[in-house]
Amino acid sequence: MSSLKEICSGLSLDPLPPNRGRVPNVPHAPIRTPNLTAEEERLALRNALRYFPPSHHATLAPEFAQELRQYGHIYMYRFCPTLRMRAYPIDQYPCRTRQAASIMLMIMNNLDPAVAQFPQELVTYGGNGQVFSNWAQFCLVMHYLSEMTEEQTLVMYSGHPMGLFPSLPSSPRAIITNGMVIPNYSSRNQYEKMFALGVSMYGQMTAGSYCYIGPQGIVHGTMLTVLNAGRRYLGSDDLSGRVFVTSGLGGMSGAQAKAAVIAGCIGVIAEVDEAPLRKRHEQGWLMEVTSSMDHCIKRIREAKSSKTPLSMGYHGNIVDLWERLLLEYERTGELLVDLGSDQTSLHNPYNGGYYPVQLSFRQANQLMMTDPNRFITMVQESLRRHVKAINNLSEAGMFFWDYGNAFLLEAQRAGADVEKVGGGATEFRYPSYVQHIMGDIFSLGFGPFRWVCTSGDPKDLSVTDNIAATVLEEISAKVTDRIRQQYNDNIRWIREAGKHNMVVGSQARILYSDQKGRVCIALAINQAIADGIVSAPVVISRDHHDVSGTDSPFRETSNVYDGSAFCADMAVQNFVGDAFRGATWVSLHNGGGVGWGEVMNGGFGLLLDGSEEAAKRARLMLNWDVSNGVARRCWSGNTNAYETIQLTMQENAQLRVTMPFPVQDEQVLDRALQG
């Protein structure tokens, strides 16, 4: 069993560690099919061997070649550490600066088997959200971080550590870019080749930025989505007896079960892969599991009748479940579902992100490897069936929304009936959850703020929970009723968070807050560290899925209607602005959520250590991190954002935002264009 000191000592070369290959008792990523030519295979092998002295090439080349041909990628399993991956307390990491130790802690949390989807393939969530491309990169990064001073910055190119470069103490300790590809070459096929060659990487959102905190990270957002869907579609805050049907129990989608119960409804989630289903059940996130469709329908009826909150995992295909719900309606006239969505990983539809209803899980995994073209055809056939059942149920009274996973986008590409007559480029028959639900919340400046207690002590988490709730309660007394509703949802969440046992991996918490709330919480936690009330530094961060962090025309910016939904200035500006305003590390990614080539997004980590310098950084950076997106949304014509940024300017004399003048008389346009 290796130690943290050994992990941080760099690549183990003398002697080489034994090649244990794939560990059989953990889930593994689907086999990739990059379709490399003979010359490209040669290049992939040459690129992988660059990490090692020539004296080891004869030993490593054959096994790397075997990995490439057997799994479609060179993961370098030989160099996977034997030490249990988890977020160890920050003081246990060998380092010269705690800023570097905080990054090491977050990296190891992303690779914790309790957290990561495919830990040996360095995939945190989403089927292909990589932390690194191979284990040599992990070893080098940990070594660099352990040696780093506060006058150096680690530069990361798509998983590859380019090295430590001189910088300022005020500079980020790490700058991360993932998948920065020339736009005309940002296609799925090109990605598969580039990843196999080891030259680019899909970091999802918080996988490649080292900021994932387990499915809790999305539970709260999912709970808010379901609550606000009830308010919008069902006209009620009370979801007891209401049924929410969806799919997916992976790293992100696994949040749906817990969120449904917290929101007070009946959540039924289909999952084809038994491993994540069992994992969520063992973690207590799923109350019940069944592979019997008859039993599933029976339990829905019982829970509806008794109005008992329930999270039930159906081990089977979501298309079968939708079609059975439709059949029950046609037979009895009873609509058993009120709200519906989908969280299959359709950003990655042909490599394990979506399993066609015509095949078993095992058959699908086999076919995607042996006959990729036939597999694509079957996925598209399945999507058409999928949408047909949803359409019929929606006509009967169910409310459905797209969860930003490219479901409607890929269904459209498959020829399914999802067109919105007269709709714009980002609009479909059903709204995305941003267009109808979360977009208004983003425009008010609210988004997923999170923190990690680096001590690993649950007591510190409890203290910070109380700090956050107290701060929000104080602010909420002085805001409008609309803002207060958002604050109250989050105060309730944070006051009840401990009892829901949501911690998986690091001692972390998430809540939705606006600009003022984020800054005040960060400053209060920093003061608690200074006063010794919190025993160790705290990392603050957020999901990239936020007010400013992501340009995604089919998700985060799908409610931007001035023609700029396909522009990525906001996410890039956010990355750069966070970097020179005090972030400990920053990241910018191509892809995330909706898929490669469809999104630009970025994130940050900032270490609070109780110092005045940390307070200054947090205040400056967090204010920018929210105002940037609110200003952009205001300029696009969003009235919530207009009001929010006006109030922010009143509170900060140094903030001056260009405000739009809306066209008040449409006839002005008509006359001009007719002339």
UniProtKB/TrEMBL annotation:
The keyword Metal-binding does not apply. Its EC number is 4.2.1.49. Keywords: Histidine metabolism, Lyase, NAD. Residues 214-437 form the Urocanase Rossmann-like domain. One of its GO terms (biological process) is L-histidine catabolic process. InterPro entries: Urocanase, Urocanase-like, Urocanase_C, Urocanase_central_sf, Urocanase_CS, Urocanase_N, Urocanase_Rossmann-like, Urocanase_sf. One of its GO terms (molecular function) is urocanate hydratase activity. It comes from the Eukaryota. PANTHER family: UROCANATE HYDRATASE (PTHR12216). Belongs to the urocanase family. This is Urocanate hydratase.
